[in-house]
Structure formats: structure tokens, C-alpha cells
Amino acid sequence: MVRQPADKIQNTVNQPQNSVPNLVLPLSSALSRVIKKPFGIYVSPNNSPVNPEKFTGYHTGADFEIFLEEENKDVSVFTICSGKLLVKEFGRGYGGMLAQACDISSQPVTVVYGHLKLTSVKAAVGVYLNAGDVLGILGKGYTLETDYERKHLHLGIHKGNGIDTRGYVATAFELNNWIDPLS
Hints:
mainly beta
């Protein structure tokens, strides 16, 4: 189920050219995409909405699925906020993974973007990115680009300055260190 975003989350399509919103959506039509794994859901190989499942724990982000017609097309991923690129690497469970430092509601956060085609990301670590910049494209499903997962975007937002790129945590209490991307 897709929840309505906070008032601050805006789509850049209707923004004046000289205006940069505080937060933008990570994919075109993001709110129309099915979310198979929402923030906070507990998954294991026995109960996951995705099959096969190789992880167990509480999901730290929201997974934005592709539309059927996007399986063999480039799907652009946009930065949701403004800040420096901190990590650009292959990550277990993600394939291509990026982490970006931002401030949301005057609080520092680290935004994790998972399952990207790393060669499509032109920005280098340390580069400042503006909200709404094209970050790269989603990796091809079931390849090394997505660590052999389906083609989708994992978006996680960790509170604080520390870099935590985990897609799952062991306890529900640990979710207090994360923000639901759809809240």
C-alpha cells in the first residue's frame, strides 16, 4: 500500500525552474509504484512478499518497484535531497549502492539508494548534489548490478551523520534510527 507523502515531498515537474524543493520523489510516478516491501516490514524467506527472499529482518527502507514496461528500459533515479555523495560502491544485497548526506527538517541524515547501475552514476564521492538531480539509473534485474535481486529502488533514510547502509535490522527498536521514506 502506498501512503501519501508529507507536504514537503514534491515532484520537480511542477516546480519553477529557479526553485529547488527541499525533498523530491526518487522516481517518476513514485507514488503510483507498488511497494512490495514497505518500511518496517519484518521479512524472512518464509513470509516475504518477494520470492525468493535471502534476508531476514526489519526493512529499513521502502522498495519502489518498476512498471512492467520498464523491465528493459532505463529508469532514472533522482536525488531526494541536496547534499554530498558519501558512498558509491557495490554493496551486498544491493549491487550498485550510493549514500548521500542531507539535512531533512534541519536534521542530518544519510540517504541510501540501492540497486543502481554504478556505471550510470557520473558523480564522484564528495560531489554536492542538488535535490532532483539525476543520480543514475536502476540496475538490470537479476544481475550483479542489483546483486541478483529484481529491478527496483531501495530507498532508506538513516538518522544522523553516521553511514549505515543496512537494508534490514534485527529488532524493531533499531528502526527508531531510520525514517520511513513515505512519511
